[in-house]
Amino acid sequence: MSIEQRLQTLGISLPPVAVPAAAYVPFVRTGNQIFLSGHIAKKDGQVWVGKLGQNMTTDEGKQAARAVAIDLMGTLAVAAGGLDKVVRIVKVMSLINSAPDFTEHHLVTNGCSELLGEVFGEKGVHARSAFGVAQIPLGACVEIELIAEVA
């Protein structure tokens, strides 16, 4: 089954590449690696604002991370010339806008990691880091960047 067919089975349609909000590009390709800039969580086309452990639950954060994964795949599809050219998702780095006593960053980030596994299978299993931060641009609850190897 192609990646496109898996996305259709999951009811996912990929968004276009977002226009950068500052002085950067959405992705850089060097050799067979693509580095995706951080993508912030969006809900209903707007920045998904919130702080985990303050006004958002872990489950809500997990859904936000899943939404970011969909946006990341949209950018990766353009950068790679199609998701079937992805050899492996190499690394995910997740930033969680969180209260000082919030400790479930890894569970929030699972929203992204689990979806990448569903879509890419073994090629979607990746290394990752998850950090709690005091704030993310525009008040977003989650920001995630990704590195992929492509053919």
Give the rounded overall mean pLDDT: 97
Number of strands: 7
Helix coverage percent? 25-40%
Roughly how many Å is the radius of gyration?
A: 15 Å
Nutshell version of this structure?
The chain has three helices and seven strands; from the N terminus they run H-E-E-E-E-H-E-H-E-E. It has helices at 3-9, 58-80, 105-120; strands spanning 27-30, 33-40, 42-43, 46-47, 86-97, 127-133, 142-150.
3D structure, described in words:
The chain is 30% helix and 29% strand. The chain is built from three helices and seven strands, in the order αββββαβαββ. Strand 5, helix 3 and strand 6 (127-133) form a beta-alpha-beta unit. It has 151 residues and is an alpha+beta fold. The chain is globular, with a radius of gyration of 15 Å. The protein starts with a helix and ends with a strand.
Relevant terms:
151 residues; globular; 7 strands; 30% helix; 5-stranded mixed sheet; 3 helices; alpha+beta
Fold topology:
Layout lengths: L2 H7 L17 E4 L2 E8 L1 E2 L2 E2 L10 H23 L5 E12 L7 H16 L6 E7 L8 E9 L1
Parallel strand pairs: 5-6
Antiparallel strand pairs: 1-2, 2-7, 3-4, 5-7
Helix pairs in contact: 2-3
